[in-house]
Amino acid sequence: MAEHSAEKIPTVIADKVDIVYRVYGTGAGRGSATAALNRILRPKKAEKAAGVRRVHAVKKVSFVAYKGEAIGLIGTNGSGKSTLLKAVAGLLPVENGKIYTDGQPSLLGVNAALMNDLTGERNVHLGGLAMGMSREQIRERYQEIVDFSGINEKGDFITLPMRTYSSGMAARLRFSIAAAKDHDVLLIDEALATGDRAFQKRSEERIRELRKHAGTVFLVSHNNNSIRDTCERVLWLERGVLRMDGPTEEVLEAYEAFTGGKS
Fold it and tell me: Which of 53, 137, 176, 179 would bridge 133 by S-S if both were Cys, CB 3.0 to 4.6 A apart?
């Protein structure tokens, strides 16, 4: 481990990142082809004409993440945590600044797309393929994925359509599919909050394994205990600004003082 920490290989670098959402009003000609062309050719002028509201969700955020780190991302609701994860995953453009990644980041959110009309079994296969696993790898790990999720503990749910699952069951299955593969950078949005303590413990153990394979894990959670059990470093975002970046206990103590113990 000493040799590993001496290397300190960066996996994600955020350099003064700004992320801005645009909320369009009901400006005249909003849906016309001319208006669309104007928005492309003269974006600022078109925004003003359409009554566009700009929401500055992430403001000048900089950090470096390294191989083998598990980093918690905390902050009160609307502070920009999920927005920042989406940008690291390449799903949202940055307004200013840069995000550099080594390897392909994988975002696992509670809303990660699986198909409700298909069975859990079919979704395991589709989800595995979407992550770049071969059919053979999926077959080899299929039972492990099902067992890890705990979906079948109270009946043969894996053969039922996903629409029959509770939100917690669906989220556990999503995490189990994503966790079956080793990732360069795994971004987890609230997945550990879904499920009983036994599932959370399995998830925490799996995150430790991913880190041993030199992966970097980011965890967004409102459950400070999950952050304490899983991460050794925490980024605290508040109103889009990075207020603190440091050791887990130090940052969580400051955050809990700020929120009065509430997330």
Answer: 137
